[in-house]
Amino acid sequence: MTDKKKMTRRQVLVAGLASASTLVLPGCSKDAPPTYGNLLRMGDNFTWRAQRLLLPSHRLAREYDRSEISSIPAIGTTDPGDTSNPYFQEELGGVYSRLRHADFADWRLVIEGSVARPGAYSLADLKRFPQKTQITRHTCEEGWTAIAEWNGALLKDVLEAAGILPTARYVNFSSYDGWDDSIDMWDAMHPQTFITYGMNGRELPVPHGAPVRLRVATQMGYKSMKFLRRIVVTDEFVDPGLAGPIQNGWSWYAGI
Ligand SMILES: Nc1nc2c(c(=O)[nH]1)N[C@H]1C(S)=C(S)[C@@H](COP(=O)(O)O)O[C@H]1N2
Ligand SMILES: [Mo]
Questions:
Q1: CA of 214 to the centre of ligand 1 (A)
Q2: Confidence (pTM)
Q3: Distance between CA 179 and CA 215 in Å, rounded?
Q4: What residues contact 36, with CB distance under 8 A and at least 6 apart?
Q5: Is the dihedral of CA 158, 217, 88, 80 positive or negative?
Q6: pLDDT digits 0-9 by tens, 165-175
Q7: How far is ligand 2, taken at its centre, from the CA of residue 142, in Å?
Q8: 3-class DSSP state of 136
């Protein structure tokens, strides 16, 4: 995300393969991830099938001891309000800066879409859900891993409070650095998928996604979106295009 050259190269690649990426099959199969049929996303098929079809229930990521916590670098966007970042957008980054300078008192996590009770949750609202802790390994596609402790609410608890409609199948996330991504309802209901506001015993620091980031312990690190702004529950898969993981050549499904 920070490497402008890499981004540009990817954009050229994606543009060059535009005809291939239009080969998305309409409709949806229970035996294939929603990106099935897109030549740029063939890897999704293998990992998603392996993890969804062969396993009887939620597979748990390994949890570690406090003594195993290691130093975790902050990478990608480390401050959406940084105007020198080439991807800075005033309507998001400017808002983020103002929220941050008021200690996120006015920050709200909007939850809408296929839910019975759409709403906007403050940090205090999220802290009222049962507090959970996980000490899990974060695996970045760039080749490093680190173990950290995360505190927060289960995404499942928050979504259930909003009243997930029976037709809902995907949970889409947007961040203050303009990134959009999604997970399916299976991962959203996973007992290690958290809305986190604490890290290693402290408030979540800005470079790691303050005030709240997603933590998906069973997928690669890039699925754990920082600087959360909005959640939209949908019945259908929504392809975020170049605002999503494919901008860096990353698959939508990234199970580990
Ligand atoms: N909003 C947002 N979320 C993000 C990123 C980002 O740049 N912006 N980078 C991703 C990647 S590639 C990784 S490895 C982790 C890095 O998290 P960290 O900075 O807390 O180590 O956040 C992920 N979530
Ligand atoms: Mo990453």
A1: 10
A2: 0.86
A3: 15
A4: 25, 29, 44, 45
A5: positive
A6: 999 999 999 99
A7: 6
A8: strand
